[in-house]
Amino acid sequence: MKWLWWGLGSFFALLLAFRIGAWSTGFSSDGVGKKVGIVHISGPIVSAEGIVKQLEKISNRKDVAAIVVRIDSPGGLVAPTQEIYEKIKSIKGEKPIVSSMGSVAASGGYYVALGSDSIMANPGTILGSIGVVLNYPVMTELLDKVGIEFETVKSGELKDVGSYSRAVTKADRSHLNDMVSDMYNQFVRAVSQNRAMT
After folding, report:
1. How far apart are CA 77 and CA 67, in angstroms?
2. What's this model's pTM, rounded to 2 decimal places?
3. Is-contact 186 82, C-beta < 8 A?
4. If we measure between CA atoms, which residue out of 102, 39, 49 comes closest to residue 77?
5. Of 9, 65, 72, 162, which sits 20 to 30 A from 136 (CA to CA)?
6. Considering 42, 159, 174, 192, which one is annotated as catalytic?
7. Which of residues 96 and 6 earns the better pLDDT score?
């Protein structure tokens, strides 16, 4: 009788472990047939690695027929945003992929959605904000007040662009404006190519 209770206890422990494993990967073990995979993008986009891995894992599953990317993000850094966008775009040819917007899908949050087959949003979703912003602190007055002085040795005129230890020059501003314009043009191109706009 003791062995029976041990056996039943082991069986239920394994069953519980299996269920927890299924829940932690975002899928249910219930039912048979095809499933829909869900990937969440929440908060500022500062890294692409985790999202790209999730997308890859789900897209490779044979039991997943379609993917929903649930976005609730104000945007973030340009490079990781573009990496996620490219990954979503590459999946589009293999499986249907839909972007579903939460409270906000602005800037980079909108950018990543452009790679999907279709975009769904609520009437109250804050959506769009096609643009690029670049800011950094200039702390020269504060450093002067506390008596901190920087000596900078650099290999080129623009090597320390964005340094908080010196004032912005005309050359700095021109260079940064060119960078922002280039990133903005990439964003506009992605919108026009994927949203049937000219």
Report:
1. 24
2. 0.75
3. yes
4. 49
5. 72
6. 159
7. 96
- Cα–Cα distances in Å, from 47 out to 26, 58, 80, 143, 189? 21, 19, 5, 32, 22
92 annotated active-site: no
Single out the catalytic residue among 73, 99, 107, 163: 107
Whether residue 85 contacts residue 17, with contact meaning beta carbons closer than 8 Å, is answered with no
- Each domain of the chain, given as residue ranges in start order, spans 33-129, 132-198
Rounded Cα distance, 142 and 38, in Å: 48
Cα dihedral value 166, 167, 171, 172, nearest 10: 70
pLDDT in tens, 69-91: 999 999 999 999 999 999 999 99
**In this model, does residue 187 exceed pLDDT 70?**
yes
* Residue that is written with structure tokens 């239920």 in the block: 12
CB neighbours of 190 closer than 8 A, spacing ≥ 6? 85, 111, 114
Q: Is 159 a catalytic residue?
A: yes
Q: From residue 58, how far is each of 63, 118, 186 by CA, in Å? A: 9, 18, 28
